Task: inverse folding
């Protein structure tokens, strides 16, 4: 093969080759993507998971049109009425460990239940107190919150009992610690409370919210136990049975059947509703069964559950509002926001991103305070409880191989967008730190990081394009890093999914393509590789043709081959084949470069923002081989492009090198080799005419070199 001279075509080749193709420098096929060797492998998985996490509708009203019967806040103080206790005994369902908690409370007179609000811990506490107080004829009291500062009550103090009341023998008392107690040791407080109630032969349950205080107590205090709620299905059924007890049985059956409908489950978007949510869902289902709610109204109420959870998470996230007292709450907020962006990703990546965001939030709150990080009490360990998340085992794609990782994800498909939209739409002062955080992540060479950050930046920019353009998109597009420009292109393409935003994105890219800034022009070319901003892959390819005329075909051909790996490769191939006869050299070169990139580029490196499931089984193959296997209807057009590359003098040498590599890769895989051998006869002839003798010689010599 060393004897082949790519510059000496025979007379027939010269007759079929445009005059300007007979001379000039050989066509140079770029080896790498615009990212070089960084930021490539693994992007397909990251993009797919990011899209799956953030592409859910979120109800604009967190209440879903529901009129709340009482404002959210601490439970009411005072004695629990007899009627309420009767209803409690009728409806309450015991969770795991109930008997052990009751025995501990009977023996020690104090129990600290550590858990998040809404998990049913308050009802379980009342049930425990009612059961023990009932054996002695005592009542049950709800008390105010335990003191959050100062030395705390002594053994003879009346703690938080309302003025005029005494701690009565045999009574049960329910207290709640503040959300983030920081000015006292909660363990010492529990010891004093236990001594007080034991002295009075009474019982007390203290509710401890999740967070730093709960973590310290669970690690070192014998009266603290983690609360595990009862199964949501049991709670839901108990409330439905109670709400419809006086109705015909067919209404209860209807409500139960409605709860299991796929559209209801999808609208909820929660893997396991909390007991409080199950009780609220039961009310909606009962109303629907009675005919008071239509199907559409029921689904709207269900879609409000995830936004309500996000609203509750961030309602008091910056209180007390000064550092370092606010730092625990800011870290919890950062964990939830980071998980919204990295939902389903590596736990370590999520935890590190959360720490970076916590720093941004902290310096925004107090620019003169430089927060550090906990070293051996890592807040990331609290992520599952703080964010309704689960830990598991997964893999991360590294291109040639996958590695096992510890993963973390929300227990609900709608929680990630609900969290992101809650902070972006309703907490304006979080936008600055979040934008800086996302821009920093978009400069990370790991696609597991920058791809997710870019998709999130695009989703948020679509919510408020004017803000996103100046704070996210423009700084990324004008950055010095190619990864930043690729992230900007990804974010722009993602934002253009919104039909109202798409014209603005298309106009911006058109201006960049025609302007003199090389970085902006490259970003425009990369953005059109997703086939979204211009409205269709064919329209995007036309834009790439115009960019190639002004800036050469390197970046444009990379984006064109990305379009070829998308949902409509036939349209792309048809346009490329048409360009072979175009009088403009830039169009012909772009067609040839795209075809030759297709035989050199691995399919998984050409991920897009739309699914192409038919190519998934061939992710490790060169795109050309994958297309031949998955889309046989592309064979003729692909053969035409490659045949032209082999016969035209300017591209013949590059085409030969590309085909050698293509065939050698296929030689190591019987499936690829079978696909390629089936394709070569089509490449070797044009219709009923044999391929140009020179091109046939090239193919034969390539095969002999294998």
Result:
């Amino acid at each position: 093969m060393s004897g082949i001279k790519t510059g000496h075509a025979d007379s027939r080749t010269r007759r079929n080759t445009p005059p300007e193709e007979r001379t000039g420098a050989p066509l140079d096929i770029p080896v790498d993507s615009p990212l070089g060797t960084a930021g490539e492998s693994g992007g397909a998985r990251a993009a797919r998971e990011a899209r799956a996490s953030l592409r859910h509708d979120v109800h604009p009203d967190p209440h879903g049109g529901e009129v709340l019967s009482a404002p959210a806040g601490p439970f009411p103080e005072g004695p629990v009425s007899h009627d309420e206790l009767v209803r409690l005994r009728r409806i309450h369902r015991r969770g795991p460990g109930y008997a052990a908690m009751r025995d501990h409370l009977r023996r020690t007179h104090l129990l600290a239940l550590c858990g998040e609000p809404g998990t049913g811990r308050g009802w379980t506490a009342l049930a425990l107190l009612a059961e023990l107080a009932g054996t002695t004829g005592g009542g049950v009291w709800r008390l105010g919150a335990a003191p959050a500062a100062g030395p705390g009550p002594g053994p003879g103090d009346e703690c938080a009992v309302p003025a005029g009341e005494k701690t009565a023998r045999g009574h049960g008392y329910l207290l709640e610690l503040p959300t983030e107690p920081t000015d006292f040791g909660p363990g010492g407080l529990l010891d004093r409370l236990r001594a007080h109630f034991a002295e009075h032969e009474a019982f007390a349950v203290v509710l401890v919210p999740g967070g730093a205080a709960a973590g310290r107590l669970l690690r070192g205090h014998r009266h603290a136990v983690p609360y595990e709620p009862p199964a949501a299905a049991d709670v839901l059924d108990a409330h439905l049975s109670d709400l419809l007890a006086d109705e015909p049985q067919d209404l209860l059956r209807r409500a139960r059947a409605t709860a299991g409908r796929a559209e209801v489950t999808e609208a909820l978007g929660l893997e396991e509703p909390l007991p409080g949510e199950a009780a609220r869902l039961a009310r909606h289902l009962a109303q629907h069964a009675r005919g008071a709610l239509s199907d559409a109204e029921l689904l709207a109420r269900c879609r409000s559950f995830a936004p309500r959870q996000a609203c509750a998470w961030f309602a008091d996230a910056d209180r007390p509002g000064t550092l370092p007292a606010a730092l625990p709450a800011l870290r919890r907020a950062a964990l939830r926001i980071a998980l919204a962006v990295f939902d389903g990703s590596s736990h370590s990546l999520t935890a590190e991103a959360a720490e970076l965001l916590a720093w941004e939030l902290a310096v925004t709150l107090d620019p003169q305070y430089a927060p550090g990080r906990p070293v051996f009490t890592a807040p990331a360990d609290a992520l599952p409880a703080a964010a309704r998340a689960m830990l598991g085992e997964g893999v991360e794609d590294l291109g040639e191989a996958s590695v096992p990782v510890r993963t973390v994800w929300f227990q609900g498909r709608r929680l990630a967008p609900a969290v992101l939209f809650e902070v972006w739409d309703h907490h304006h002062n979080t936008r600055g730190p979040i934008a800086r955080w996302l821009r920093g992540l978009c400069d990370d060479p790991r696609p597991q990081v920058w791809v997710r950050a870019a998709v999130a930046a695009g989703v948020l920019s679509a919510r408020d394009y004017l803000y996103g353009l100046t704070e996210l998109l423009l700084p990324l597009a004008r950055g010095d890093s190619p990864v930043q420009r690729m992230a900007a292109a990804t974010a722009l393409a993602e934002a253009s999914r919104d039909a109202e935003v798409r014209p603005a994105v298309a106009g911006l890219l058109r201006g960049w393509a025609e302007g003199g800034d090389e970085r902006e022009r490259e970003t425009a070319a990369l953005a059109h590789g997703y086939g979204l901003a211009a409205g269709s892959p064919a329209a995007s390819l036309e834009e790439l043709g115009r960019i190639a005329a002004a800036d050469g075909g390197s970046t444009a051909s990379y984006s064109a081959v990305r379009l070829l790996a998308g949902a409509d490769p036939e349209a792309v191939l048809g346009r490329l084949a048409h360009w072979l006869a175009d009088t403009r050299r830039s169009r012909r070169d772009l067609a040839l470069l795209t075809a030759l990139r297709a035989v050199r580029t691995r399919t998984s490196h050409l991920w897009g923002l739309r699914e192409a499931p038919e190519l998934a089984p061939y992710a490790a193959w060169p795109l050309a081989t994958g297309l031949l296997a998955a889309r046989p209807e592309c064979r003729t057009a692909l053969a035409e492009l490659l045949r032209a590359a082999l016969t035209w003098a300017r591209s013949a040498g590059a085409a030969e090198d590309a085909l050698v590599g293509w065939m050698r890769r296929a030689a190591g895989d019987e499936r690829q080799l079978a696909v390629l051998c089936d394709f070569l006869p089509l490449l070797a002839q044009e219709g009923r005419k044999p391929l140009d003798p020179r091109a046939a010689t090239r193919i034969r010599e390539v095969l002999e070199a294998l």
